[in-house]
Amino acid sequence: MRQALPEDESLAGLLGGRRGAVDATLPGVGYVIAWVIAERFAPGSTAIAVGCAAALAVGVAVSIVRLRRGSAPRAVVLGLLGVAVAAVIALHTGRAVDFFLVQVLSNAASALAWAASILIRWPFLGVIVGLVLGQRTRWRRDPALLRAYMRASWVWVGQYLVRLAVFVPLYMADQVVALGAARVVLSWPLVALCLAASWWVLRRSLPPDHPGLRHPSG
User: Fold this and answer.
1) SS3 label, residue 17
2) Among 34, 41, 134, 166, which residue's Cβ finds the most Cβ atoms within 10 Å?
3) How far apart are CA 187 and CA 24, in angstroms?
4) Which of 96, 6, 102 has the alpha carbon at shortest distance from 50?
């Protein structure tokens, strides 16, 4: 009888994501640092413009590094586009904190999307892992695996809700520096915790005699 889930395997190993999560925070860090410095000499829209320019410069540098690492060009372009949209919003509204509005909205949308995927019995965690393992939708024909993915996907919903619980009050209070710091703290550390927690839920949800993620039954 095979173990349900090998001890040396994990969601972090299957999905990766550490570099991407870290890289995604760097433009925001560049924005906050440049904005804080510029605000001392030229407060207002000029400081925002300086911060946006720094964020875009960092975003371009990160994109080049990611391309050299072999990241998919589409993912790199989308990441840089996100930085550009955040900069445009901040420049348009004239509010420094609005650079992080995209992050607030994207986490709200992600929480809703992941919850909806569970309710319609197409949990995103199963979809993602199935694609990574080349299973397409075979995992959905395994009732135990489907149930395990649904339970573990709630952990990911919780991840986005935790970010919103921190981001929204800081955004409403116009706390640019604190929001930038929270963006860093709640990136890879929270993703790592989410991966570990959802992996634990998967392991606990599958019966002991289940063949494992790589071998959906049914």
Assistant:
1) coil
2) 34
3) 8
4) 96
CA distances from 153 to 5, 19, 77, 146, 218 (A): 17, 22, 27, 11, 21
What DSSP letter does each residue of 60-95 carry, written as one string?
Answer: HHHHHHHHHHT--HHHHHHHHHHHHHHHHHHHHHT-
Radius of gyration of the chain (CA): 20
In sequence order, the 6+-apart residues with CB closer than 8 A to the CB of 133 are 14, 213, 214
Ordered DSSP codes for 26-50: HHHHHHHHHHHHHHHHSTTHHHHHH
CB count, 10 Å around CB of 131? 11
Residues 114 and 124: beta-carbon distance below 8 Å = yes
Per-residue pLDDT of the chain (218 residues; tens, 9 = 90+): 344 444 445 666 556 555 666 778 899 999 999 999 999 988 889 999 999 999 999 999 999 988 888 777 887 888 899 999 999 999 999 999 999 999 999 999 999 999 999 999 999 999 999 888 888 889 999 999 999 999 999 999 999 999 999 999 999 999 999 999 999 999 888 988 999 999 999 989 999 888 888 888 76
pTM: 0.86
